[in-house]
Amino acid sequence: MSLWEPRTELGRMVKEGKIRTIDEVFANNYIIKEPEIVDILVPGLKQELLNVNIVQRQTHAGERSLFQAVVAVGNEDGYVGVGIGKARQVRQAIEKAVREAKLNLIPVRRGCGSWKCSCDEPHSVPFVVKGKSGSVEVTLIPAPKGVGLVAGDVAKAVLRLAGVKDVWTHTRGDTRTTLNFALAVYNALRNTYYFKI
Predict the structure, then answer these.
(1) Where's the S5 DRBM domain (predicted)?
(2) How large a percentage of the chain has pLDDT more than 70?
(3) Which domains are delineated in the chain?
(4) Which residue, 14, 30, 136, 167, has fewest beta-carbon neighbours within 10 Å?
């Protein structure tokens, strides 16, 4: 990590030790433009490959095939990010997606919003939130302890990385589109900070 040369003001502040936690970054509304900042401030970040697709683009010389990777990252404790990467090789596409997911890291407000459970532990979402991407619309509904993640596999991966343990989901649209499904869940989690409590 000592080889990293920060290119932004936030990067320099992190390297000099003026900012020590990721919470300070979000509290001051800084924009993360370097993935190394996340590596330093959020150690133990886990990543999960959600999907790899072949996408084609028409050029003068014919069709050009690229791999598109969708990756989710999170620390399973209130922070999650989703990224997309395209490259000629799968490994490069995944690396690009991981970099973008780190830059898209968001805080997730967790709570116990279910009326069937009054434990005051942050195991679910604090209230009903909705997220949309493309044709996919996802509604996250607070669930009592022990219910688990009642969701599709892609949504489960994103929610698990965000640190949400119990939630009911309601989806509309074409959830087979992994990218839109992942982004809809990501947008719903981002909306947990839409209201000031």
Answers:
(1) 45-108
(2) 98
(3) 9-41 (no CATH), 129-193 (3.30.230.10)
(4) 30
Round to whole Å and give the CA distance between 17 and 29: 18
The span from the CA of 138 to the CA of 115, in Å, is: 21
pLDDT digits (tens, 9 = 90+) for 131-162: 999 999 999 999 998 899 999 999 999 999 99
**Phi/psi of residue 179, each to 5°?**
-60, -50
Residue 60 DSSP label: T
Q: Where are the beta strands (DSSP E) in the chain?
A: 46-59, 62-74, 79-87, 106-107, 129-133, 136-142, 149-150, 167-172
> For all residues of the chain together, what is the average pLDDT?
91
Q: Are 124 and 113 in contact (CB under 8 A)?
A: yes
Tokens 């133990």 correspond to what residue?
Answer: 44
CB count within 10 Å of CB 179 equals 18
What would the two tokens of residue 120 be? 């005051």
Question: In this structure, which long-range contacts are made by residues 66-71, counting pairs with CB atoms below 8 Å and at least 24 apart in sequence?
Answer: 66/93, 67/93, 68/93, 68/179, 69/93, 69/94, 69/96, 69/97, 70/97, 70/178, 70/179, 70/182, 71/47, 71/97, 71/98, 71/100, 71/101
Residue type, 151: A
